[in-house]
Amino acid sequence: MPSSAILPFTEANTRRVASLFRQAMRTAFDHALKFEVYRNATLDIRAQFEANRHVSDPEQLERLIQKTEAKLAHWKHPDPYIPPSRPGGTKYQRNIPSPKEPIVPGNW
User: Cα dist. 36→22, 39, 42, 56, 67 in Å?
Assistant: First the structure.
């Protein structure tokens, strides 16, 4: 068994798989222009994860996780969706407070 393998059905493994699932959902959202397309993609992704839900062999589990990570890297969108108010979004720090000191020095 490889030293980096995580035993199945542990909290660490659950978090790792849940993280991959969330990444897959976000990647599907980045590629979908219509809700119907996104919904179908989410159903396919969910079916793929559910098909491997009861894998208990640590080596097979590690191979599945590596395969999923490679697939996510391959499908990573070059311009992912960023919510407007998040850092990097279009509204991030749009209405910052104006400074208290005069902008142009001098006595006008």
Answer: 19, 5, 10, 34, 27
Per DSSP, helices labelled H in 52-101 are: 58-75
Q: What is the pLDDT of residue 2?
A: 52
Q: In the structure encoding, which two tokens stand for residue 13, read together?
A: 């493994």
Residue 82 or residue 20, greater confidence: 20
pLDDT digits (tens, 9 = 90+) for 16-50: 999 999 999 999 999 998 999 999 999 999 999 99
Between vectors from CA 20 to CA 19 and to CA 24, what angle results, nearest 5°? Answer: 120
Contact 31, 39 (CB under 8 A): no
Half-sphere exposure of 16 (CA within 13 A, CB side): 17
Q: What is the pTM of this model?
A: 0.72
CA-CA distance, 23 to 89, in Å (whole number)?
Answer: 19
- Inter-helix orientation angle 11-31/35-51, to 10°: 150
